[in-house]
Design a protein that fits this description.
The protein is α+β, with helices and mostly antiparallel strands. The chain contains 17 helices and 11 strands. It folds into 4 domains: 101 residues, no CATH class; 198 residues, Nuclear Transport Factor 2, Chain: A; 210 residues, Roll (Nuclear Transport Factor 2, Chain: A), CATH 3.10.450; 96 residues, no CATH class. The strands form 2 sheets. Strands 5, 6, 7, 8, 9, 10 and 11 form a 7-stranded mixed beta sheet that branches. It has a 4-stranded antiparallel beta sheet with strand order 1-2-3-4. The chain is globular, with a radius of gyration of 28 Å.
């Protein structure tokens, strides 16, 4: 108002001395300034109360105000300034709407969209003219349903040929933990409601298809060791499954029969860490023959992540140069290898098993991980990898070094004499950085340390502290053939590493880019839903609080019940940014949510205590 008053006062004083053009220009200055102020206010309002993702009540009001402003401009401002300024207002408002709409972890899928309208399809179709969308979706459906059966039975042999080594290791780690906690997971009434291709990416010599899958299931975890570990119920969920295949190779069917797609020989039912044909030696899940599941991502993590090879403008160019040095290089494949190694390393630490990690880590990481062995037995009731992203590429001592941001979620359980004596009251997420190194221009022979094979000769390996292959005598954890884990860092330690190695970096991205679309409100809303569900009751006051919060932050009110159901089933995860001040703000809102019914249940207080302890939050 002060700015407008001064402009009008100036216009009034100059009027006797001015001409028609100067008066028109003054009007343009006034209205331009007014519009800029209005748009700035709009941006502030959108970030605080946004209309992103759900079309909340406030979103409609904001659009109405903008349209009213445009009409007012067209009527009151002389031609052609009215057209120029009105068009600018609509253009900037539309851009602000698009930006704000993207900044939410609530994911809306167009289930009726045709594949020809999918991002990346045109380039993909040029390289894959015979692609059959219906046949591909049938493979996805088969893969999804059969993997659920394999998960329930804790037996991955029948589906091993369809899943990457990293995905196998994710399942295998959970099975190990479930067996130690005497758990089983039953799945009933599983129904796939929709399958939709969401996007298609090009990654080195490979194509990646990201698929949205919406399903309903009655999912129950039952523990014979301790009933407090039991959880589950009916839920409707949305996940994104990523499938990879080598470009240019003729597609061979690996889904209809359990036979080798290369030589047609029967495949062993009990395939474990290595997906290999005994007859011809082909690696079935290499992507050479058919689509292979390489990643499973929850909806909120998928919406927040940056597409591969698009994390920064220079990323694609530098990766292309790296691919030129390494013909077998693919971002998706090295991320899969990083997740594989990280999971095996995490499991080795939990089980205090040095031999399980020795072959794929250098001496520095081996000593650091061994020192992290806890005196007590601490297992994981749940452990998930939410996101694995390549964020850094550097050259050091004639080696390529890759930095991966790995975001995981877990619920820890402490055992004493085989009994549960303590556990986290929720799943908590955290981010660590894994560095992996390999000699420049080295070529992998198709064998992997991470699937218990010598990278030099392919001989089978057992877990051992001996780093020499018993067949060829080669050093197993050498960077000559394989990507070796050379450091494990916190995000704070990695920021210092970035600073001290700035000259060596070819690509140097901030780990915060992995969650670029996650705002404070997204963390807070997610955690508030976990908080409300902590005592197992969703009373009228809590429902009202959740509804008001959803409207205020621009989330679809219709999704509140599904969020709460996820929290009740313990599938929502406590999430926090790295920034300490933001953590404090989110924590205070969680306290407010707990007190929405004017009482603090013991379960709610326990969760708040766990959050403060896990993230070391200081609250005044």
């Amino acid at each position: 108002m002060t700015c407008s008053y001064r402009l009008r006062e100036s216009d009034h004083r100059e009027k006797p001395m001015g001409n028609k053009n100067s008066r028109s220009m003054n009007r343009v200055v006034f209205w331009s300034t007014f519009i800029l102020i209005s748009l700035f206010a709009l941006q502030l309002w959108a970030r605080a109360g946004g209309g992103g993702g759900g079309g909340g009540d406030k979103g409609g009001d904001g659009i109405g105000e903008i349209l009213y402003l445009v009409v007012y401009i067209l009527v009151r401002i002389p031609f052609p300034f009215n057209i120029i300024i009105g068009g600018t207002v609509l253009g900037v408002a539309y851009y602000a709407y698009r930006v704000q709409k993207q900044k939410t972890f609530v994911r809306n899928i167009d289930w009726d969209r045709q594949v020809k309208n999918v991002d990346g399809f045109e380039a993909f179709k040029g390289n894959n003219p015979e692609f059959d969308e219906k046949a591909f979706k049938e493979k996805v459906h088969t893969c999804f349903m059969e993997i659920q059966k394999a998960w329930e039975k804790k037996e991955l042999g029948p589906v091993r040929r369809w899943i990457s080594d990293g995905v196998y290791q994710r399942f295998n780690m959970q099975f190990r933990m479930m067996d130690l906690l005497k758990q089983k997971n039953t799945l009933e009434s599983l129904t796939v409601k929709n399958i939709q291709i969401d996007s298609i990416e090009s990654d080195g010599a490979f194509d990646i298809i990201n698929v949205a899958i919406r399903a309903i299931v009655v999912d129950k975890f039952v523990s014979q060791l301790d009933p407090s570990l039991n959880s589950g119920g009916k839920e409707e969920f949305l996940e994104f499954w990523s499938f990879i295949r080598k470009r240019g190779n003729p597609e061979k069917d690996a889904y209809s029969e359990n036979s080798c797609p290369n030589c047609s020989s029967p495949l062993p039912e009990g395939m474990g860490e290595v997906s290999k044909c005994d007859a011809c030696g082909s690696i079935i899940n290499s992507g050479e023959y058919d689509w292979v599941l390489s990643e499973i991502t929850q909806a909120d993590d998928y919406a927040a992540r940056n597409p591969k090879l698009k994390k920064a403008q220079e990323f694609s160019q530098q990766i292309t140069e790296l691919i030129a040095d390494n013909a077998d290089f693919s971002v998706q494949l090295v991320e899969d290898k990083a997740s594989n190694g990280y999971l095996q390393l995490t499991m080795a630490i939990a089980l205090k098993d040095q031999a399980a990690m020795r072959r794929f880590v250098n001496d520095k990481v081996f000593e650091k991980a061994s020192a992290a062995f806890a005196p007590d037995t601490v297992l994981f009731n749940r452990f998930y990898l939410n996101d694995v992203s390549l964020i850094g590429v550097l050259e050091e001592d004639n080696r390529n070094v890759l930095a991966f941001s790995i975001k995981s979620s877990c619920q820890r359980v402490k055992l004493v004499n085989g009994k549960v004596v303590g556990k986290d009251n929720s799943l908590f997420s955290e981010t660590e950085i894994v560095l992996m190194s390999r000699d420049k221009k080295s070529v992998n022979q198709g064998h992997s340390l991470y699937s218990h094979s010598c990278p030099g000769c392919g001989g089978p390996l057992a877990d051992t502290l001996d780093v020499h292959c018993p067949y060829c005598g080669g050093v197993l954890n050498s960077t000559s053939y394989e990507w070796i884990i050379t450091d494990l860092l916190t995000t704070g330690e990695y920021q210092e590493y970035r600073r001290t190695h700035k000259k060596e970096f070819l690509v140097n991205l901030d780990p915060a880019l992995v969650n670029k679309l996650y705002d404070v409100r997204d963390y807070a809303f997610n955690n508030v839903m976990v908080m409300i569900a902590a005592d197992g009751v969703f009373d009228e006051e809590e429902q009202k609080f959740a509804m008001e919060l959803a409207k205020k932050w621009g989330y679809p009110v219709s999704q509140i019940s599904s969020f709460f159901q996820m929290a009740m089933n313990k599938t929502l995860v406590i999430r926090m940014p790295d920034d300490a001040k933001k953590q404090q703000r989110i924590y205070k809102l969680m306290v407010k949510a707990a007190m929405a019914d004017n009482t603090m249940a013991p379960e709610e207080q326990k969760l708040l205590d766990d959050v403060r302890g896990y993230y070391k939050i200081e609250v005044s």
